[in-house]
Amino acid sequence: MGKGQSKTRTVSFENESSGIIDISEDVVSRLKKDVQKEREAKKAEIRDAQQKQQPVQVPVIPSQMQTVIYQSAPTITAMQVRKEKEAELSANDQYWGERLKKQEDEFLKNNKILEKEFNDTIAEVKNRFKHSSFANQAPPCQEFKSRIIDCYRKNPTETLKCAGEVQNFMNCINRARVTAIDDKKPAPSA
After folding, report:
1. Of 121, 146, 139, nearest to 177 (Cα)?
2. What's the whole-number mean pLDDT along residues 70-87?
3. What does the buried/exposed string (b/e) look like for 102-121 if buried means 16 or more CB atoms within 10 Å of the residue's CB?
């Protein structure tokens, strides 16, 4: 008996259903005890809460009626909840109203700056081109232009018949160019 080594005995069971874990009766009883302790703790908490809410008797004074006072957290009425929500909503409205007002002010400020820049640019463009004689004039040689168009309409297949009208139009345009260049030249100083 003690001289040789003992062999470990192994026992195997065939489990017909896979995925099921077998537990011993000791484990089941411990789990039941834990559940029972939790139930007893909850019952004790409920008893303590009920004892705290028991009415406190105030000694009776002959001129006063007996008053029952409950010791518990004060309850919030629907009116108080409504007032709190309305206060939150009004604070929220005020915040967003102020934010919107700031953005409107910023927009108006930027708009004034852009409008001023736009008007300055328009004035600058007008100053640059106010000396231009072409800006206030109609295009030159309009009567010759209309004669050419009439000639082409009358002779759609024989355009060479309108060569004289085209030459008159070209001469008019050249005279207009020479006149415009002469007008731009500064007067010679004496």
Report:
1. 139
2. 80
3. eeeeeeeeeeeeeeeeeeee
Q: Predicted confidence band at 138 (pLDDT cuts at 50, 70, 90)?
A: confident
In whole angstroms, how large is the CA radius of gyration of the chain? 54
DSSP string, 115-157: HHHHHHHHHHHHHHHTT-SSTTSPPS-HHHHHHHHHHHHH-SS
Position with higher pLDDT, 124 vs 186: 124
Structure confidence by residue, pLDDT tens digits, 142-156: 898 999 999 999 999
Please give the sequence-ordered ranges of beta strands (E in DSSP) within the chain, or none if there are none.
56-57, 68-69
Whether pLDDT at 103 is above 80: yes
- Helix H or strand E encompassing 45: helix 25-52
Q: Sign of the C-alpha dihedral, residues 37, 39, 45, 50?
A: negative
57: helix, strand or coil: strand
Here the tokens at position 176 are: 């207009």
For 88, the token pair is 């939150």
- Full-model pTM: 0.30
Residue 125 tokens read as 């463009």
Distances (CA, A) of 187 to 137, 182, 183, 184: 22, 9, 9, 9
Q: How far apart are CA 25 and CA 34, in angstroms?
A: 14
